[in-house]
Amino acid sequence: MNPTDNAFILVCAALVMFMTPGLALFYGGLVRNKNVLSTIMHSFMMLGLVSVLWAVVGYSLSFGTDIGGFIGGFDFAFLNGVGMGVEGSPAGNLPHLTFMIFQCMFAVITPALISGAFAERMKFSGFMIFSAAWLLLVYAPMCHWVWGGGWMGEMGALDFAGGAVVHMSSGAAALACAILLGKRKGYGREPFIPHNLPMTILGAGILWFGWFGFNAGSALAADGLAANAFVTTHMATAAAVLSWIIAEWVHGGKATTLGAASGAVAGLVAITPAAGFVTPMAAIIIGLIAGVLCFGGIMLKNKFGYDDALDVVGIHGLGGTFGALATGVFASIGAEGLLMGNAHQLWVQFVSVVATWVFCFVMTVVIFKVVDALVGMRPSEEDEVRGLDVTQHSETGYQL
Amino acid sequence: MNPTDNAFILVCAALVMFMTPGLALFYGGLVRNKNVLSTIMHSFMMLGLVSVLWAVVGYSLSFGTDIGGFIGGFDFAFLNGVGMGVEGSPAGNLPHLTFMIFQCMFAVITPALISGAFAERMKFSGFMIFSAAWLLLVYAPMCHWVWGGGWMGEMGALDFAGGAVVHMSSGAAALACAILLGKRKGYGREPFIPHNLPMTILGAGILWFGWFGFNAGSALAADGLAANAFVTTHMATAAAVLSWIIAEWVHGGKATTLGAASGAVAGLVAITPAAGFVTPMAAIIIGLIAGVLCFGGIMLKNKFGYDDALDVVGIHGLGGTFGALATGVFASIGAEGLLMGNAHQLWVQFVSVVATWVFCFVMTVVIFKVVDALVGMRPSEEDEVRGLDVTQHSETGYQL
Amino acid sequence: MNPTDNAFILVCAALVMFMTPGLALFYGGLVRNKNVLSTIMHSFMMLGLVSVLWAVVGYSLSFGTDIGGFIGGFDFAFLNGVGMGVEGSPAGNLPHLTFMIFQCMFAVITPALISGAFAERMKFSGFMIFSAAWLLLVYAPMCHWVWGGGWMGEMGALDFAGGAVVHMSSGAAALACAILLGKRKGYGREPFIPHNLPMTILGAGILWFGWFGFNAGSALAADGLAANAFVTTHMATAAAVLSWIIAEWVHGGKATTLGAASGAVAGLVAITPAAGFVTPMAAIIIGLIAGVLCFGGIMLKNKFGYDDALDVVGIHGLGGTFGALATGVFASIGAEGLLMGNAHQLWVQFVSVVATWVFCFVMTVVIFKVVDALVGMRPSEEDEVRGLDVTQHSETGYQL
Amino acid sequence: MKKIEIVTRTFKLDDVKHALSELGVTGMTVSEVKGFGRQGGHREVYRGAEYQVDFVPKVKIEVVVEDERVPELVREAKDAAFTGNVGDGKIFVSPVDEVVRIRTGETGDEAI
Amino acid sequence: MKKIEIVTRTFKLDDVKHALSELGVTGMTVSEVKGFGRQGGHREVYRGAEYQVDFVPKVKIEVVVEDERVPELVREAKDAAFTGNVGDGKIFVSPVDEVVRIRTGETGDEAI
Amino acid sequence: MKKIEIVTRTFKLDDVKHALSELGVTGMTVSEVKGFGRQGGHREVYRGAEYQVDFVPKVKIEVVVEDERVPELVREAKDAAFTGNVGDGKIFVSPVDEVVRIRTGETGDEAI
Ligand SMILES: Nc1ncnc2c1ncn2[C@@H]1O[C@H](COP(=O)(O)OP(=O)(O)O)[C@@H](O)[C@H]1O
Ligand SMILES: Nc1ncnc2c1ncn2[C@@H]1O[C@H](COP(=O)(O)OP(=O)(O)O)[C@@H](O)[C@H]1O
Ligand SMILES: Nc1ncnc2c1ncn2[C@@H]1O[C@H](COP(=O)(O)OP(=O)(O)O)[C@@H](O)[C@H]1O
Question: Could E47 and C254 be called an inter-chain contact, meaning their C-beta atoms sit closer than 8 Å?
Fold first, then answer.
């Protein structure tokens, strides 16, 4: 066991954990007053629900002995054999528990990301059951495929910190949910204006901060690679902030605060799969493109007519996909991408993108339909108009 | 000196420091608009007051040469002999300054915790004097008893990160204060509705994040034990979030945001004494019980008729007590509890619980009465109605 | 390469990064409702703009091969030669990328600090151009002079973590901007009341937390010196919180929340240049003086008649200057100050203070005038009255 | 002159404003209010303590108009605010003696 | 019909609402207002800059009723809002020409 | 008695309050409102979605006074609120039948 790496990854795990409350605030600020708590709960509850599921069986499905390249076995169920030493740890330098908990934080935030798509119109009971099923049936396999010894990793797909596992998967699920759940009542007629942008900016700041744990920690050691991932993360994000507000400014004449925050998230998403494989200057290019691309994606959304309330598809789906492909283009550290003459890598990345979208989208549709049939996903129209805070949680956000 | 451990504990100390502003927000969101700043000040000022007191004499009273098992001597007063090297450091792997400042952060948050009990009706001057006295006369002895070489630690009581020192002590003090200060004006007649729940959730998120420093840091090294404490902390908290909202849902038909946040704190409190002594699965059990227990405790409060405004007794008092006893039951790492066949440990824990409650309650009553006689603890009725922000601090929280 | 130091400094870099969103909230809470987003943007955008500039050329100007003691060369432009190993790294124990990104975070926050002076009356376009120019023409030289091998460091001036580079420089720039831009419309007639003090307190909490990375990280290693800097930072800050509210209480009869938060920042600023050179008890003295001094400075401001909206001059300018001189008085670790009989050090500090003020003030005036001529710095009176959020960014902060 | 006060659902504000603008109304003043009525409120629960909240967010639109325009404006406002469910709200008409436009000093119908 | 406007302390809202409900009032509209009066305000201080704030938070309850019920309702509202200290507030009664219930189109006393 | 309602710019509140106080007005009630008028609003943009916001923050000052004081108070309030730019707002005067001071039970002119 390497104590330095252990210290580093434990701190990184804490940083990644902090991202989920950060996401709660990021999303919470974007909805209307009457749904702020409901939206916050969609993230916060994942800390409770997913963590326990992870210990019980999720970790084992993801990192247990590989079964046919598709899923892990039950060896680590109930954290059996996951101890303070390195025995059985997928990272030989880390206590098994350290590796497990670092991965746990990734599992927590992924279903929380989806919730932006169905904000302001989801029943809490349906949400909880959906998320539990989604974790075990979508996230755990995806995680196994890429990092747990499954086929995608074996194929050579590069995903440093979760472009496919975290962002494409949640983006595809978001698209399915947005379509299946339908538009919010009043969509297109009433204004849907963020009720608290300073809260959203705070959330973006926390996400940026925590993402250093996410990406640099994915080096799983406190080495130069971690430093590189840290720097590429920061630089891509900074570049995406700039390019998003420049795109906005060209498009509508004003740079917005929400644009800056959205650009930051777009940059963070896009660099995630690439962080340890590309140089800082390549990261800046990736960030610059990501900002413009995701802005454009959101502009296009209205053409399609689904109501992805907080733009999970536009930012996580699109940004994650772009990042995965960009990794295949720009990879130059510990792997070779197109620019190093290795077109095959781009092809592998492309396969992983398609497989991820198809698998996650289809599975999400199935889970959604089943849960909808069981408990119903959408609240009554009257409840939706009154607001989910009062009708789902018997609370109101503010008494100012 | 072990640089890795030093790095780890310094970062943990920063995390624990961050908990106090987190607590300020957690509590601040729960009170009414007109008292938000006053409530925030009760936590924030401890960073100023307690830290300086700690350097002057508090640290020495806690960790100075033991006098009769009861209190430390003045050897380290004014940080005399507390230097950059390990000489004199209670943790031989850490610079003495590192150990001292890590402990300082615990001393800061403990009196801040109490303030939830007397929120919305305490004079600022009285509060400051009370807190200073309480730190030196209650916290320092308690800390010495358990960690500084005092009788409780010698007896074999297990308290990994402060179940007795931090949570039972503040819970017992909270009970005394709530009784002595009386109910808030309008209690039971007017609604006392949290004015800003997103702020409370943010506070809960910060607390959870910082608590990793609190508990994992209490291993005082970046080893497997730290990893275990980190994991038990997270899992107990997650489990308590779940069990609290399930209890709520069974009881009243709705899961609330405040319930989720409260469950988190209950889980964090209950696992604190146990974090390094129990396995992650035992932590989940402890968390599940803690959530239901503290929810029940708060339900019962109304029967007793004291006004513990923000439920310090129900969460920190009850949760800390349960955690201390649960440690005696579930301990299996570096110690043996009831389930390992060691009933004696549970008895020791029980003794430490009783001693802590009695000592802290009685001392708090004495200090309260003296300070009340000196400067008065409760503001005039008119000031209380106008709100403490305007009357104690000449400010208002918001101009929205 | 030392992995422990690498882990420590990466985490510190993340902490320093988090200070900038913290500053956004600290400042954002102090302005009026209608300018909250504009004020937040002034900090948040520096994360985007400065980071990219830093990679492109800023880092090289600061730490490239010294040219005449005045500026660095272009060797590291586009991060050329800044890699995962230690080659070329100014800190031989750290990957070059780690050193670069740690420094990047300092460069980000410094121009953000200035923005408090021109809050509520600055055009966004002017702000962006001004900040870019200021980074390259003021910050980069200052950084080079002190830490990059330039004349000020060579002369023996002590600046542990940026008293001159960060705080005096931004303070002097703030003074120039406040004078040149003129007062806010309505200044002295309408009330300018902070619109959200809990947000300001949150910001102060984040700043305090992040500042541990700023100061302890400036040891560039996880050693006893880092522990010392950590402790002095905490103690000076705590002491300044106390002394500020005591000064307020003596002056006006009430201790305020904003006073506590302001005292914290004053203490953090004052200890910054001294953190690694003085003992914890000296830090407490420095903090006690800083709190009273900065409070007094702000009281005096009204006499002068410039509108330094959020008191950057009073806190960063004055606090940084005091800290630099206090370092010359109290230095006893790795350097000797006046109290150790070395009056020369105080003289050197004095020279560095004067040079910093003159250079930064004059350069800021020049940059300001040029940018003002190019795009204009002040919005139209009507835009200023409507608020910068709507007129500069087409957004509003809250829909409550 | 008369003041027409329309208390209705918040999300109907834009519709009502639009309907009145169509009829040439060039000024109105809006406040956020809480309404108590047949519609009923909701229950809130904080750490087990239950509160019955009888008030529902509503919007109040005040517009001062010439006497002769009252019937038409009331009719259109009613139609614009109508959903048919309990809680649609009320329209009140009351007398106004005088109106002054601050900017010009005009009074009476001219000032509207 | 008449409009009764009650401006009083915020924490008296529930008592007044209750008193009026008891007398069969089924609708009212409430706004948060700031009152200036004999009660006086308070001082605020931000970084040494002092501001005198003359306004105190109050609540305004508006209820439109049939003419004949005015005296009774005013009396009961007054009693419910009474504390005897400066700042209890005022009750204003003013004429209303017409009332329309949006949902049903009813007018006059029926619409109340 | 009459009620004078002054709808004007928020930053003019202090000036108007001061002007009325000078003339011996000892009570008034203020609300934050949103005004729609000639002044026009602004555009807001959130992730590319544009919204036209027609409402401008305004303040509404209500003061009930004896009949004979109306002309003087209206004149002074008008002067105090005047800037000469579009958006200065309006003053409305309307009848009040009765006033009650809750604390003392006084009615009519005495209660003002
Ligand atoms: N007598 C009244 N005086 C003042 N406001 C009233 C009165 N009656 C109703 N309102 C307002 O109208 C709103 C709608 O009334 P409600 O009884 O809920 O539904 P409906 O108008 O469809 O019968 C209430 O919330 C309240 O604001
Ligand atoms: N002439 C008035 N016009 C409008 N509102 C008034 C008037 N006089 C008093 N008020 C309102 O009544 C409230 C209470 O009045 P105040 O003079 O403080 O106490 P009291 O009613 O006990 O004499 C004020 O805050 C204000 O909102
Ligand atoms: N007919 C009206 N009824 C109610 N309020 C009005 C009316 N006309 C104007 N107002 C109010 O007066 C404010 C100012 O009016 P506006 O037309 O913008 O400027 P001006 O008063 O200078 O002509 C509006 O924002 C609105 O609140």
Answer: no
Q: How far apart are CA F89 and CA F71, in angstroms?
A: 18
| C-alpha span between A293 and A326 (Å, rounded) | 13
Q: Is the pLDDT of residue A305 over 90?
A: no
Rounded to the nearest 5 percent, the helix, strand and coil shares of chain C are: 70, 0, 25
Query: Residue F36 sits in a domain of what CATH number?
Result: 3.30.70.120
The whole-chain average pLDDT of chain E stands at 94
Interface confidence, given as ipTM, is: 0.97
Q: Which chains touch D (3 or more CB pairs under 8 A)?
A: A, B, E, F
Q: Which atom of ligand 1 is nearest to the CA of E103?
A: 22
Domains of chain B: 3-387 (1.10.3430.10)
Which helix (H) or strand (E) is E15 found in, with range? helix E13-22
Query: With a 6 A CB cut-off, is D39 part of the ligand 1 pocket?
Result: yes
Cα B277–Cα B283–Cα B287 angle in degrees, nearest 5: 135
Answer yes or no: is pLDDT of C278 > 90.
yes
Q: Which pLDDT tens digit goes with each residue over A138-172? A: 999 999 999 999 999 999 999 999 999 999 999 99
Residue to substitute from C32, C52, C206, C220, interface A, most A β-carbons within 10 A: C52
Q: Is E5 in the pocket of ligand 1 (CB under 6 A)?
A: no
Name the percent of chain C lying above pLDDT 90: 97
C248: tokens are 């307020």
Cβ-based neighbours of D86, under 8 Å, separated by 6 or more:
D37, D38, D39, D40, E103
pLDDT digits (tens, 9 = 90+) for E28-66: 999 999 999 998 889 999 998 999 999 999 999 999 999
Q: At E26, is the secondary structure helix, strand, or coil?
A: coil
Angstrom distances, CA of residue C310 to CA of B389, C128, C171, C301: 21, 19, 11, 11
For residue B159, how many C-alpha atoms fall within 13 Å in the half-sphere facing its CB? 33
For the beta carbon of residue A311, count every other beta carbon within 10 angstroms: 25
Q: Indicate the pTM of the whole model.
A: 0.97
Which residue of chain A is at minimal alpha-carbon distance from D43?
A394
- Residue A31 contacts residue A194 (beta carbons within 8 Å): yes
Count of alpha carbons within 13 angstroms of residue A43, beta-carbon side: 30
pLDDT reported for residue C361: 98
Provide the β-strand partners of residue E34.
Answer: E57, F30
Q: How many domains does chain D have?
A: 1
Residue ranges of chain B with per-residue pLDDT less than 50: none
Sign of CA dihedral E32, E33, E34, E37: negative
Nearest to B270 by CA among B162, B147, B148, B114: B162
Looking at residue F38, the DSSP 8-state letter turns out to be T
